Records
---
Amino acid sequence: MATLHAHPLHASPTSGAWPGSDPTIAGLHSVTKKYGQTTALDNFSFRLVPGEVVTLLGPNGAGKTTAIRLLLGLIAPDAGSVRVLGRDPRDADARTHIGAMLQVARVPDVLRVSELIDLFRCYYPQPLAAREVIRIAKLEGFENRLFGKLSGGQKQRTLFGLAICGNPDLVFLDEPTAGMDIESRRALWDEVRALSAAGKTVLLTTHYLEEADALANRVVVINRGKTVCEGTPSEIRRRVSGRRIRCVTQLDPVFLAALPTVSDVKQDREALVVTAEAAEDVVREMLRRDPTLSGLEILSPALEDAFLALTSQN
Amino acid sequence: MSANTIALPVPQSTFPYVARIFAKEIRYEFVKMMRTRAFSLSVLGFPIMFYLLFGVSNRHTEFARYLMASYGCMGVVSACLFGIGMGISMERAQGWLELKQASPMPRLAYLAAKIVSSAAFALIIEVALIGLALTLGGAHVTLMESLRLIGVDLFGSVPFAAMGLLISVLVPANSAPGIINLIYLPMSFASGFWMPISVLPHWLQRLAPALPTYHLAQLALSVIGAAEPGRMMPHFQALAGYTLVMFGAAWIIFNRSEAKA
């Protein structure tokens, strides 16, 4: 995507480059944020490196939206500090290089898509051309429609378009695909990948694990305002040990449970599901003992299982 | 901060860039108010409809001139209270205001757009009323009177914009229309928007000078020689005082909620 050019990023000369450490484009440092009695974020630290796509993953109420709102300067932390592009995000200048898609955003129904884009473009000193925004957000054909007359997916795409109007270096997407059908969701994934390919830094929150798996370089799992763990999607998946062997067999479940590294045996309709660390060895043993064994499948744990296991631990 | 960070050069807020934001913000705010039928039909429609009913039926009388001035005040108050008070309160509830706050839009541009658009509605209403008075109302209106009436309406938009702003920070979106009507209807009645204050019950006449709408009505009525006897300066001062108090209160409440957020 040649037209989505990145702004030149200047490392601040005063901050003193630390050998081996990546530069931070945005971060929360030991941030605590409370709403009355509830602690939304509890001594939470987090940073974004230029060019990466990071997913904040967590159940409802984990503190994902609070983190985004802090990074956008919409709220102030009770303790700790928030820095975006070397500044406090509450200062309007820091926001000229940021784009955002918020969870509860309803745009006035009576403005046209092209008018909304025109309005948002004028807020930024170096905006993308309007036709570029329309092309990237796939809004061709309904530029002149009123926002209120759009379908759910088209509305989300318009909001995505508003997020990229300023040709931002850093894009925050708070549950961008909430309420979208699978087709629109995949279309939006392509748009996020295009942003990433153009060198933008993207932070998105989601409760669709599939989405984190499909898009993120790095996943940060949070729950109750604290980081549970972070890593690449496959690293997160590996946190839950063992693979699942599903097959139709006459072997006794009690016998299977006694095999080395087997952690769980479950009946699933006509088949058995065996969870084991050394899946190959277990399968070899099962095939040797049961020549009638059929319908064999070996599954890696889904990110979903990893996520449930991780967030239920604490 | 310990790790090295990325900082961008401070973008210079040049005058043309900021002026463009104000211009676009005002333009789209006005378009939006116009296309929001619930707003534009009632704010424009009520004073015009009432003039057709009560102004035209009193044609060739002083009352046809009176209502031209007083319904113009009604236009100012309803455009500002509904346009700004309900407008901001609804946009906050919908998340549109927050999305704008996450952008580099200057807050003042948002506020200015609301005030200018509401004042534009007040202007349209007054021009329509003058046109109706001259034609169907059979009234004599000089050009000077027309310009002075419009001037009073534009000046009057400021205190009621401040009141709208105060309402927007105090009242949640779903109860805003009801609360605004509760404030606006009795106030407009007690201030002589509907009939001269001299025919109202005595206790209401005593109460009227406490209302900002009374001072606006007196300024507008003085243009056509229908004001209560007395100097006009205290009315200007009262409206200026109301403006300061309401803007100040809105500012304090807004900053408090910001600090808590």
---
Amino acid sequence: MTEDAELVARIRSNDLAAFEELYHKYKRPLFHTALAIAGDHGAAEEVLQDCFVRAYGAVDRVDATIPLSPWLHRIVVNLACNAATRNRQWPLALDTLIDRLVAGPAASPESAAQDGELREILGEAVAALSLKHRLVIILYYYQGFSLQEIAYILTCPVGTVKSRLNRACVALRHSLGADRRLKGEVAYAVSWK
Amino acid sequence: MPFPGSRADGARVAPSEEVVASLVRWSLHTGIGKREPPDEVWPRILARVREMEASEAVIRQCPKRLAPLAPLLQVVMVSAVLMALGLGLQRNSPRIWHVKAAERTIEGAQQGYPEDSLRGSIWIGLQREAPGQRFGGQSEI
């Protein structure tokens, strides 16, 4: 019996300690996904909260023989997309994210300037992607899900996920390649930090 | 070392898929990888779950409490439905019957032809019909 299956069995018998274990096990990746999609810390918190409440309500129906991460991500993605659509903050989500990441630990004024430029370029490239393309980028590159798992999370065929990922990558490559502001050394150094 | 997306002659080409992937991965990991959900989220979830359980328990207990009253409730409900139907029928009871006076529809009847003239013409037509044209080409006899 897997760890998840054991937790599900305990939760089904109204063991709230098991539910807390489940929360602590998955809270970080789910919160990060919610944050990347919704773009707002408060909205991500709300999404995380709603996700676990819904998961508790539906725990009797879940297939405990498979890992719970894709199932929980399915709930989070749905809720976060709703939140993003409702708040209309989606186009700014990753811009803000990149702002924060690049403005963080700047070693020197020079690197800060370089990071700032990269931030702008990445922000524009990612903001140009549509919601469905951003979703596959986040789930594939950040969360490391397989194509099959993403297909399950997004409720679409694997072929659709592949084509979306391909199109998103092509779009990013084109926009980054066409951007003359992107100095090779800067991007190369940053990409392997 | 030059950026993989630039060539020696300075012309720019699109960066490879690996470079884009690593750039995106790096940006997401650095941006949100260190962020933690606040500690107050779990107590809120717990409160909502307990609230949900309490309301479910009330729903589950309700039928048990109402079990002795079930036959009485059934009788009340059935009699209410019957009364409503009865009132509805009574309200509609004085029905108005619309009777239309019979009128001749054939112009010929007004012109003085006998009443059976139409039936007679049909009968003559049937008699003239060849036997092979009826009952799939076979005669009746």
